[in-house]
Amino acid sequence: MSKIRKGDEVVVITGKDKGRRGKVSEVLKTGQLLVEGINVAKKHQKPNPNAGVTGGIVDQEMPIQASNVMLWNPETEKGDRVGFKTVGEKKVRFFKSNGEVLDR
Known about the structure:
Structural class: mainly beta
CATH architecture: Roll
CATH class: Mainly Beta
Shape: elongated
Largest sheet: 6 strands, antiparallel
CATH topology: SH3 type barrels
Number of strands: 10
Number of domains: 1
Distance between the termini: 15 Å
Order of helices and strands: EEEEEEEEEE
């Protein structure tokens, strides 16, 4: 079970996008994340008329290490650490600062 999952809102804590927030669009098997609007690079794309792709320079989201982001806590309006605990027979994530449970 991963501490950061698809659909979570995260804040970048280090790097060129430090302080920016975004939603996780994909979690890769390498432990990296694709976050909407974060770590965007320019890609030079060749045209492919068979696939209907026009050429030019396009923006592409690149993976970012999971250790470089923190889960956004809307209650405290800061990035927060995440822990695990069992509620009943279910394993859930919770914020370390205020103990609020993320998963229901």
